[in-house]
Design a protein that fits this description.
The chain is mainly alpha-helical and 242 residues long. The chain has two domains: 1-126, no CATH class; 129-242, Serine Threonine Protein Phosphatase 5, Tetratricopeptide repeat, CATH 1.25.40. The protein is built from 16 helices and no strands. It has helices spanning 7-13, 19-26, 29-38, 52-62, 66-73, 80-91, 96-106, 113-118, 122-125, 128-139, 144-157, 165-172, 179-195, 197-206, 211-223, 229-238. The radius of gyration is 20 Å and the shape is globular. The termini are far apart.
């Protein structure tokens, strides 16, 4: 078992740390095999197998050091685990404008759903009053995981008290047929249904949602323990309607 780097050590020695080599030391072969099955579009040789709790801890240890700044200055990485670390380092960013800049640099290089869904910049949570303008830009992207990230942020910050009909309709209007975007859209609708049942049901019956997304939304809602039995009964009724 490798000895974890303590924060005080990192402050003194971070310049000498080779991040990729440290990730190799933290890797777990069993977890590598597991991750390979979760992200089949990532070649197995690009997965080291660092468990997320270890990766979070390592990101916290190095985030203020020079190696971390140099690491995120170049968004092109070889390994899946490096991409995950990059996403976590962005998540620790406190400045809103810098977080957006780092996201715009990195998101085009995200190549799988797991890395995409891992990114959650804490600076964003303090600026939800202006965040939606940026989300619109992400949703307009031609890159799968940039769009998915935009939907992720809607799920996180605009599915409950900040939800409006135009946000639901915006996601419903997205081009369909991309599995990872469609799945995120379905998750957004199913999550929004917890607090805004009638609005989402109306959208499901309006014909505005692609059939595959509609079916997946209903499936996710039926699987949720946060959706009422009455709503689930109604969803079963409309499930087969065109």
């Amino acid at each position: 078992m490798t000895r974890p780097i303590r924060t005080s050590e990192c402050e003194n020695d971070c310049r000498r740390v080779d991040i990729t080599e440290r990730l190799r030391e933290l890797a777990d072969e069993e977890y590598r095999a597991f991750q390979s099955r979760l992200v089949p579009n990532v070649p197995p040789e690009r997965i080291l197998g660092v468990r997320i709790p270890r990766l979070r801890k390592y990101a916290a240890e190095i985030r203020r050091g020079l190696p971390a700044r140099e690491f995120i200055a170049n968004p092109r990485h070889i390994y899946y685990d490096e991409n995950n670390l990059h996403g976590l380092l962005i998540s620790y960013e406190d400045d809103y404008e810098r977080a957006l800049k780092l996201l715009d640099e990195f998101l085009p290089y995200v190549d799988n759903w797991a890395t995409c869904d891992l990114i959650s910049p804490r600076a964003i949570a303090k600026h939800t009053d202006i965040l939606y303008t940026q989300i619109e830009k992400w949703l307009d992207s031609s890159h799968t995981y940039t769009v998915r990230f935009g939907i992720d942020m809607l799920i996180k910050y605009y599915a409950a008290d900040r939800l409006t009909i135009d946000k639901l309709e915006r996601v419903a209007s997205l081009p369909h047929g991309d599995y990872y975007i469609d799945m995120a859209a379905a998750w957004y609708f199913a999550t929004a249904m917890i607090w805004h049942t009638q609005e989402v049901l109306s959208l499901l019956e309006s014909g505005q949602i692609d059939e595959a997304v509609r079916a997946k939304t209903i499936q996710k809602a039926l699987e949720s323990y946060r959706i009422s039995d009455d709503t689930k009964a109604y969803l079963r009724e409309i499930r087969g309607r065109a």
